[in-house]
Design a protein that fits this description.
526 residues; alpha/beta; Alkaline Phosphatase, subunit A; Arylsulfatase, C-terminal domain; ten-stranded mixed beta sheet; four-stranded antiparallel beta sheet; 18 strands
């Protein structure tokens, strides 16, 4: 099976454009002292909903991701990397501005990003950088601060997606991850002003729901049975907000929309709205894509009908089907990351480019019986972060870092003064193995969106190296406290338990300090 999978991967790679041609070297500039230096390029690769559990640099249980792992092998792996708000648009706004959600104005996915505000691409552009964003944007308003932008519309589609290219609507045939990579390589090769340093935001739709694999990856993992997470049958005792969510694999993962059981006989039905969306995604495909899709899924559908699963057996079947499709999508991401890294190396750009790989948030791979994100629990709060700085540090970095730190890192790397109103702190000293003066004792988190289809209550909280305190509000008023050292799966809420009074008071004090620091005083619990 392993050899067959390798052959399939070679076929997939051959189907994607992979021309690697030499280009002119980037011109030198002068620093503040008048000394000539070569500016550092920035390649910022980000996926949507890529869990750290499914990158083999972090976790080897599920998948091997050799190309993403190359960044960690040649650079650093952040082992305590987190987001400020675990939902796509707000997380992206935090990265662009270096500020928490309330300060940048984009608190939930119903918002529209204020493109007139300060962002790191604008500041880099003013410094002489050639800036581009290619792929997923998901901020409603059009990009600003970019010399070139070529973005998916909204969430984007996996097959034959529509883009907006510098204001012009364009539909491209093929698979979104391949196309986004093709456009990025073409920009590097043919479009950018190569006399300037560049900052390229290469942002994939994948692996966002509904996890539609490339046709050449459809048979991968078909024979693999994944271990059921130890918290899969969590009963949410002592966690009121967790009981009220609607992101359960058993109850809320749609059989048509999410799991592709759209049978030709129209005998299988899920949520009517989701079912219509799932069948519409299939109709977007061209005849060759449909033929490949049917050759795989028709067999899966037939067996699903025959087995007629119920109860726990149905829950575990859903989990296996979800994992297989999700990991097939990750396989395409990894392959395309390899294409870009190979391009940099072939053209000498790897010697002068900071490469970053991350996700806009984490994701649940069946932990607590869930898919999706939003909660401040570890699986969605924590995010992968790999960076390779030429001549920089290698190995693991354990300091507490957050996605508000990316903007000041890129600015300091480019020699741009970091504005005082940015909440994040530069990670560049860590990348250079220098003293980091952040003195960060804890991270602040705030999720605002409610109501939404997953019914996750708004909440804010604070996380130290060992403890996490969360306050859920809106239609409930509930506190949760976890000792991550003794309870890493966050099953035992010790808030209000005897002996935790002093710890709780100290964490609430720290929480309030951060709320004042980030201009969120209005949320301080009375």
């Amino acid at each position: 099976m392993e050899n067959i999978d390798k052959i399939k991967q070679m076929i997939c790679l051959s189907l994607a454009s992979s021309a690697v041609l030499p280009i002119a070297a980037t011109a030198n500039v002068r620093n503040d002292n008048g000394d000539e230096r070569k500016p550092m390029n920035i390649l910022f690769i980000m996926c949507d909903d890529h869990s750290y559990q499914t990158i083999s640099a972090y976790d080897t249980r599920y998948i091997n991701t050799p190309n993403i792992d190359r960044i960690a092998a040649d650079g650093v792996r952040f082992t305590n990397s987190f987001v400020a708000n675990s939902i796509s648009g707000p997380s992206r706004a935090c990265m662009l501005t270096g500020k928490h959600s309330l300060a940048n104005g984009f608190t939930n996915n119903r918002s529209s990003f204020d493109g007139g505000q300060q962002t790191f691409p604008k500041l880099l552009q003013a410094q002489g950088y050639e800036t581009a964003v290619i792929g997923k944007w998901h901020l409603t308003s059009q990009p600003t601060g970019f010399n070139y932008w070529d973005i998916l519309i909204g969430q984007g589609d996996y097959y034959n997606p529509k883009f907006i290219k510098n204001g012009e609507y364009v539909q491209r045939q093929g698979y979104a991850t391949n196309i986004t990579t093709d456009v990025a390589i073409d920009w590097l090769e043919n479009v950018r002003d190569d006399s300037k340093p560049f900052c390229l935001l290469l942002h994939h739709k994948a692996p966002h729901r509904t996890w539609m694999p490339d046709t050449c990856d459809l048979e991968l993992f078909s024979d693999k049975v994944f271990p059921i997470p130890e918290t899969f049958y969590d009963n949410y005792e002592g966690r009121l907000a967790a009981k009220g969510q609607r992101m359960s694999i058993h109850n809320d993962m749609d059989i048509i929309y999410d799991l592709k059981m759209a049978d030709k006989e129209n005998e299988i039905h899920g949520n009517p709205i989701h079912e219509a969306g799932g069948r519409a995604m299939y109709k977007r495909m061209n005849p060759d894509q449909k033929a490949a899709w049917d050759a795989h899924y028709d067999k899966v559908i037939a067996k699903f009908k025959k087995d007629s699963l119920q109860g726990d057996a149905l829950s575990e079947w859903k989990f296996q089907q979800y994992m297989r499709d999700y990991l097939r999508v990750i396989t395409s991401v990894d392959r395309n990351v390899g294409r870009v890294l190979d391009y940099l190396e072939a053209n000498g750009l790897d010697e002068n480019t900071l490469v970053v790989y991350t996700s806009d948030q984490g994701f649940y791979m069946g932990e607590h019986g869930w898919f999706d994100k939003r909660f401040m629990y570890e699986e969605s709060f924590r995010t992968p972060l790999l960076m390779r700085l030429p001549g920089g540090a290698k190995g693991d970095i354990s300091e507490l870092v957050q996605n508000i730190d990316y903007a000041p890192t890129f600015l300091e790397l480019a020699g741009v003064d970091v504005p005082e109103d940015i909440h994040g702190v530069s990670l560049l000293p860590l990348l250079k193995e220098e003293k980091w003066d952040a003195e960060r004792k804890a991270l602040y988190y705030h999720y605002y969106e409610f109501p939404d289809e997953h019914a996750v209550r708004p909440h804010y909280g604070v996380r130290t190296e060992r403890y996490k305190l969360i306050h859920f509000y809106e239609d409930i008023d509930s506190w949760e406290l976890f000792d991550l050292q003794n309870d890493p799966t966050e099953l035992n809420n010790i808030y209000g338990k005897e002996g935790t009074e002093e710890l709780t008071d100290s964490l609430k004090t720290l929480l309030h300090e951060l709320q004042v620091k980030y201009n969120e005083e209005q949320y301080i619990a009375k």
